[in-house]
Amino acid sequence: MHPAQHGAAVVAETAAFVATVKAADLSTPVPSCPGWTLADLTRHTGHVHRWFTELLRQRVQQPPTSRNVDLRLPENSDGYPDWLTDGAAQAAEVFAAADLDAPMWAWGLDQHARFWVRRMLFETLVHRADAERALGLTPHIDRDLAVDGIDEFLTNLPFAAFFAPLTAELRGPDRTIRFRCTDVDGDGSGDWLIGLRPDGFGLVADSTAPRTADATVTGTAADLLLLLYGRLDRESDAFHLLGDPDLLAHWFSHSAF
Questions:
Q1: Is the pLDDT of residue 24 over 90?
Q2: Cα separation of 190 and 235, whole Å?
Q3: Are 165 and 203 contained in the same domain?
Q4: Can you give the chain as a three-state secondary structure string?
Q5: CA distances from 97 to 102, 120, 227 (A)
Q6: Are 38 and 136 in contact (CB under 8 A)?
Q7: Of 75, 85, 116, 128, whose Cβ has the fewest other Cβ atoms within 10 Å?
Q8: Residue 193 confidence (pLDDT) above 90
């Protein structure tokens, strides 16, 4: 996917989120975000939209010292869904006006404005799934979108220690974990090899080369995306696990954010 597709998908995912929560009781608990209700989830997602949008407006070149932004939050939570829609519309305007290939500070690997559009997309998608699952619904996630989300997660996770400190403990004596999609569509995507080294971890560049990993997890792209974000249990029937169970336990206890 390219940045223009990411921007359009932010709007689509927000619309799906809003459609889910608008007719729901916003006091409904969200099990995948302990302690939160649907109101909290909606407010958080809208805050993220507005903060990322402000970063893009300013095209910041240094890490910001504050996350404060004018939320214009409605007085009553009943107004949160429309407020979320409005924030996504503002973001879309900024996406359209910005040079998304311009250099910009980002906490992940890609130091360009486009990083924030992609990050906003998957923040929104995962929380849309949180809302649906809280209401007993099964989220539908497009396969290509899920593949892009897995890639975004695994690419940036090595840089996440400042807000996900457990990731700093993802170390190993040259151990490997493979994540592979079962719904392959022939384009060569859907296969990632992670290397754990004594000094850190990250994607192995030539992940498709024949190589047996120390542990492998297979499942559909949508299920793997939710698994990586800690929304699904790896022991469920959705996944097939091979190799070292202790290595997988170490990964999943230190990687979700």
A1: yes
A2: 20
A3: yes
A4: CCHHHHHHHHHHHHHHHHHHHHCCCCCCECCCCCCCEHHHHHHHHHHHHHHHHHHHHHCCCCCCCCCCCCCCCCCCHHHHHHHHHHHHHHHHHHHHHCCCCCECCCCCCCCECHHHHHHHHHHHHHHHHHHHHHCCCCCCCCHHHHHHHHHHHHHHHHHCCCCCHHHHHCCCCCEEEEEEECCCCCCCCCEEEEEEECCEEEECCCCCCCCCCCEEEEECHHHHHHHHCCCCCCCCCCCEEEECHHHHHHHHHHHCC
A5: 12, 17, 35
A6: no
A7: 75
A8: yes
* Cα distance between residue 92 and residue 112, in whole Å: 17
Same domain, 17 and 121: yes
The structure's pTM equals: 0.95
- Amino acid letter at 59? R
Domain's final residue, options 140, 162, 195: 140
Q: Of 140, 168, 183, at which residue does a domain stop? A: 140
Strand partners for 194: 177, 203
Domain count within the chain: 2
Residue with the bigger pLDDT between 146 and 187: it is 146
